[in-house]
Predict the 3D structure of the following.
Amino acid sequence: MIDFISENIYPNYGGGKIIKTNLIQSYFFFILFSFLTISGAFALPNPAAVFCNDLGGKYELSSGDCLFTDGLSCDAWTLFNERQCGNSHVCASNADCSQEQFCWKNKCSSKGLCRPKPQMCIQLYDPVYGCDGRTYSNACMANSNGVNVAYPGECGKENSIILNLQLYGNTVMAQWSANFKPEKYVLFYAPYPQMDPIASVDLGKTTSLEATLPKQSQYFIAIGAKDSKGGYVYSNIEYFRIADIKALSPGTSWQWQLTGPIDTTIDARMFDIDLFNTPVETISELHKKGRIVICYFSAGTYENWRPDADLFPKSLLEKNLEDRPDEKWLDIRKLDTLAPIIKARLDLAVSKGCDGVEPDNVDAYLNDSGFPITYDDQLHYNIWLSSEAHKRGLSIGLKNDLEQVKDLEPFFDWALNEECFSHGECELLLPFIEHGKAVFGVEYILQPEQFCTLANSFGFDFLKKHQDLDAWRIPCGTLKRVRY
């Protein structure tokens, strides 16, 4: 039976064989390797580099460090000689590690590194075959049981089913495909968030489904089918929530505050506040006052102070944002790795009661991110963000990214811009106004008399704000200070 279970996104570490040697031998290898490399006599593998790679790390030639995907790093020769990398030491089995750790290995090899067992989970169904001969619903569940992953999939099955889900108002549309020929498909569904009971419906050979459901319907769904061996193959698990997406039309008063205690006394219809830092009690208070709550998070950058920062593998990170040493661009092309983290943030927005989300930094293709991200890469990612938000009954705004407004307006519910009047590019936002969608914006340097008249004529809803986005604001609708 399909297992609707929470899964942790947990980084892969490494394991592998150890080259046994002592300190004198290691020093000899180092001298000999250096001499032969300089002389060009012949190529001799660096044993520290080999050892690093066998443990699943990457040997950095310039620094001599062994780098692991979760950010763990250490000098490769230290690892080779002392069998230690930071707080992680080389192990042969779980018995060599503490109770909170397990011996993570490169597949089912003889040696590995003691690493922490995962403690929390992100919802995802991605079955793996463990080194103990059992199938687990995902790699995290295997690791949390102290078991390493032999390979992806269920007990050697290579068959797969891909489920795609779209939500249009109250209508759910699902399509799926398999890389084998099942006799029939079965729909599995369970209420969110209980995951119980799990029900099923035979679908025959149907490969699409459309259903109109009442408001507040919330379900997990997946597709299953028997393969030629009589075993079941399951698709990815998808989740949807049918809710009234709060309309944000031109003329909606608003407040944007990301720092300091939220001033709930401000007379504004919509509040845009930080997803992580804002207490649930504040969101509830705003709702009692009839406010619409939008929750801010960065969807395109890694912020090292966020509570889920440890979930981002190093392979997703590259250059820092300009003037922000604690924030790095993400490789949005690696959606298989990034998606579970972003989905978890959207799920957090739902659990805290947010009515919508403001994903920031969705224009990496225009910036020096360190990755070769293209216009189409960004378009694909931003449309995916919109789809995932709407599946959860959340409205979503397009933040900046003016060059893609024409392509993305149909997928987003409103827009939010910073300083388009300062840069003379505000007219690019007019497609949102033309389709009855609000355009919110702020200017940090210009004074209200320099931009408000034009903003009002466009139908935009602009504020004069401090750059740290505290409670202070001057809305263009009043042309006077309303908060200090």
